[in-house]
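Predict the 3D structure for this chain.
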Amino acid sequence: MKRKQIVVVVAVVALMGYLFSLPVKGLIKPKEERTAPGQQARNTSAASASVDVKAVSDPAKSAVGPDLSGKITELEQSLAKAATPADKQKLQLELAHAWDDANQQAPAAFYYRDLATATNGIENWIDAGNRFNDAFKFSQDTTMQAAFVANAIASFKKAMAVQADNLEAKTGLGIAYVNQTSLGITDPEGGSPMQGIMLLRDVVAKDPNNWKANLNLGQFAMQSGQYPKAVERFKNMIAQDTKQSKIEPYFYLAESYKQLGQKQEAIAAYEKCKELMPADPAFGKRIDDYIKELKN
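Done. Predicted structure below.
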């Protein structure tokens, strides 16, 4: 299985858990579950300060195995001894790429952020923000999640300070604004879930086929119980003439149809999802179980 296909498999399985861990029928938590705005800001700041590259690299090394972790440790040691800014940035980029190759978003995010801080390069800010958003999805640790979402917001804001109309930065910021809602926190400077949705809608208005913005708008429609809107969003994505993998929109289309009680449509979408998925017994069995449940 190609690495890109493996990433898609992991992403879909992880997103299944992420999506259904969030509150349905409303993105905003009930008032009694929220903390005071000042406390929210303090919690976010504290989490951001307590989570650094070492905190995420140590467990990631255990996940990637001794060969790659050994190579990464050597790069870290070289970075600690780097004598010039140029040498330091070169090693930070190598570490970011090494973690990317291992599909470990969190440590990669911190190295891209460090690079962006040194150069104020928009691509590095966007790479950092995207990795932080991905790390948020794949983490189950709420302290880590709070740090990831706070860093994602900060990175995309920096990117937009360099180029205000950058659609990728707008998309990432919109996603991060909605993500923080699931933790009951808010960006001290604002950033409500509706602001996030509006940013994503603005991206789609300017670029109707923007894959990431449409995918997330569809997912957020599901989270808020707006399944007919989600169906239309995912159907439009599937109809696009694109090289993007359509596994995710088919999966979420199936889930949306299931919630609407449209069993035959859900089964057809699940079967298409399974057909497109590279051979993966665990995922295939899960899809088969969903189909069996709908047929009973």
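The first helix runs from residue 3 to 21.
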